[in-house]
Amino acid sequence: MAVAKHKQSHGLGAHLLQAGINHAVAHNTHFVWARARDSALDFYTRNGFHVYGDQFVDEATGMAHHLVMKTITP
User: Fold this and answer.
1) CATH number 3.40.630.30 given to 5-71
2) 71 closest CA partner among 13, 40, 25
3) How far apart are CA 17 and CA 47, in angstroms?
4) Is the entire prediction scored with pTM above 0.90?
5) Under the phi-then-psi rule, with left for phi > 0, alpha for psi from -120 to 50, and beta for the rest, what region is 8?
6) Per-residue confidence of the chain (74 residues) as pLDDT tens digits?
7) Domain range annotation of the chain
């Protein structure tokens, strides 16, 4: 998921994220995960995600990422 820089900080990312979580809940999923860029870690933690493991570099982009996960209740 990505939101254009000029559209960030307006709640669009949180809305998209919640729509994805709602879809997961509707399909009886117990957790969701993402490969979060370091610059997006605050966004994910504000939305209830926890960081797991060490930082890694995405081979396709060369950018630093972390695995983030959130437990959900279907």
Assistant:
1) yes
2) 25
3) 9
4) no
5) beta
6) 788 889 888 889 999 999 999 999 999 999 999 999 998 999 999 999 999 999 999 899 899 999 999 999 86
7) 5-71
